[in-house]
Amino acid sequence: MKLSIKYMVSLRCILIVKELLQQMEIPFLSVKLGEVEITEKLTKNQRLILNKKLKKLGLELLEDKKAIIIERIKCVVVEMIHYADNLPKIKFSEYLSNNLKYDYTYMANLFSETEGITIEHYVLKHKIERVKELIIYDELNFTEIAHKMHYSSVSHLSRQFKSITGLTPSFFKSLKTHKRIFLDKI
After folding, report:
1. Is pTM beyond 0.85 here?
2. CATH class of the domain comprising 122-185
């Protein structure tokens, strides 16, 4: 049985949820971003207690099918941009449809009406957060970052970076304090 968990966007969240399941003696097969696969159906009481404990951690069990789809979209985006070694070579719409087994138009409409932004804009915001992270790490130059994040050029990266942050990547790099947005707040 699969459980969907809202706001589960980091590897730390995975560790916390695993620990919670072990404490509650709920056997599980896997824990990944936004989703837990358990071996046995939860009782109503177990579900209530699990949700209460998750809420204390800033997480939440999802019940609504549409909310689950939205959360799965977000998790695929986060996983692809922040945790994968390389971005996929195919169009993101195709990547998302292949991963979630839904028509992209359906997902895009559902996402836009629920979240108030398009999936494309959501992806762009995450790409810019990842670019900020790469700039802060200072291991890659702007050309390498543009290539890694599948931008056609440094100027394309700079235009999108400035449209989202209001700053150029160079100016961002020169700042003493770097403002990043938590992934669950994007």
Report:
1. no
2. mainly alpha
